[in-house]
Amino acid sequence: MSKQSPVTVSRRSFLKLAGGVVAGAAGASLLPNLVRNVLWPTRLAEAADSVADLHLASTDGWIHLPPAAAVPPYHPDALAPAPLTTYIFGFRDVTGLTDAQVQAQKLKAQHSAPLFWVDEGTEFRLQLSNLGLGLRPDLVDPHTVHWHGFRDQIPFFDGEPMGGFSVPIGRSFVYVYRPYHAGTYMYHCHVEDVEHVHLGMTGIVFVRPVQNGTPYEYPPLSGKSYTKFAYNDGDGSTGYDREFIIFLSEVWAEAHWDFSHVQLPDWTEYRADFYLMNGRVYPDTLAPNGAGNDPVTGDLIPTAGYEHLQYQPASSLIQVNAGDRVLLRFANLGFSEQSMTLAGIKMRVVGRDAALLRGRDSTDLSYQTSTISAGTGESYDAIFTAPAMTGPGPYTTYYLYNRNYHRLRNGSGTGHGGQMTEIRVFPAGTLPPQAAPNT
């Protein structure tokens, strides 16, 4: 239960007041051009009239977590439509859908939020449409897209509502970015961020360096060159053949149940019940990626045999050829530090928080490790070389897992689960070139 405060304006009332401030800001379009250009470094009208590179919709929805790992009465949620179990807030990629299809995605959010990436130095436009909440129409929260750790943003497009503004229900806004620092970042809604981040409005975004496309031989005289890099290293040391995102998040079942049952959680009692990797728990982390959007309804298409993962479309299975250099992009937006161990293979950490680990005098600050400990809001870029395949099977298996074994359990369940996936090493030349991350 929430405690009484001497302040008479409630949190929800304050949000309504903030919405009024947004409306007042819209009225500033009546100001003279000179004043508007000061207030709006890139003018809203110009942004809204242009075609977005990515269109996200914010809404609520349901996902699946193992029902056998019961946390009564909070998990599985009795209101959830089978085979789903857990209420969330989230985003959906609705790029290219018609207006009617976009509106039909209310109550069909996904977790983790859609992955996207941009090219360094290239303008990128992201449209956010707030569809409102299908299960909780009483909540009229606005939403934003805040690019966590982004160093090149002006407040107007930052997504932090105290310095900019937020998008009310039924409205859309186009964010304009021009990134100049390669690396791995996160994004999330910054309105009521404790609630909205934990309920699922968060995911990974990364910036590809301008060095991409220029061949570098690495190591020198090795005879192998790369054209894809994590950073502008100038020597090919962050070159890779394949890349995979590892997004870490958590679910406190009581908080999710509270929101679906019109209650308010006490965040001072926070205790995660599930630890997720790309929105899933092991062994679902090994399931294939989703099949995209239905061309008629716009809804996410579940992969046959994995219908319970319809709104958790991102696989964490890592499949590589022996000899491949593999880039792992780690990001943590749970509320706990997570220590991820790769058993049997050393990783070289080349970047942290979207910064190349190199001193001002070009001293190499990268390091080898088998474990990466990522605090809340931190990202790491690590590269490993896949060893030669061993054994008689079609591939050799290694495990990437949370070294805190409690976080390999699902809720009150036992055994494997939580934040774990497999790295499968095939004989050299078996797998074709990677078409996209996590494929």
How are the elements arranged and paired?
Blueprint: H1 11-27, H2 33-39, H3 44-48, E1 54-63, E2 86-93, H4 99-103, E3 116-119, E4 124-130, E5 146-148, E6 172-177, E7 183-188, H5 193-198, E8 202-208, E9 216-217, E10 225-226, E11 242-251, H6 253-260, E12 274-277, E13 318-321, E14 325-332, E15 338-342, E16 347-352, E17 367-369, E18 371-374, E19 379-385, E20 396-402, E21 420-426
Parallel strand pairs: 1-4, 3-8, 11-14, 13-21
Antiparallel strand pairs: 1-2, 4-6, 5-7, 7-8, 9-10, 11-12, 14-19, 15-18, 15-20, 16-17, 16-19, 20-21
Description:
With 439 residues, the chain is an alpha+beta fold. It has two domains: 11-39; 47-426, Immunoglobulin-like (Sandwich). Helices cover 11% and strands 27% of the residues. It contains six helices and 21 strands. It has a six-stranded mixed beta sheet. The protein has a five-stranded mixed beta sheet with strand order 13-21-20-15-18, with no helix packed on it. Strands 2-1-4-6 form a four-stranded mixed beta sheet. A hairpin with a 7-residue loop joins strand 9 and strand 10 (225-226). Mean pLDDT is 89; it is low at 1-49.
- The string of secondary-structure elements, in order, is HHHEEHEEEEEHEEEEHEEEEEEEEEE
Report the portion of residues in β strands. 25-35%
Query: Looking across the biggest beta sheet, what order are the strands in?
Result: 12-11-14-19-16-17
Number of domains: 2
Annotated CATH homologous superfamily of the largest domain: Cupredoxins -  blue copper proteins
* CATH topology category name of the largest domain: Immunoglobulin-like
Low-confidence region ranges: 1-49
